[in-house]
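#structure-requests
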Amino acid sequence: MNYIKQLQASGQEKTRDICKIQGELRDLVGYLNSDKFHVDTTVQVDDVLRRLTRALSLTMNIYK
């Protein structure tokens, strides 16, 4: 694969990773806005951390 094709493939992969990260963060926002927290406003720290960890782990692929 020539250099230009490698750059294009890398750019496409990074775009996919960014979309995945955005999806994880949208899920977290949706979770925090869910009916669950309209009555009980306490946040489940483990749930939030788990979702943030997934998003953060996806960022590792961007810096390869």
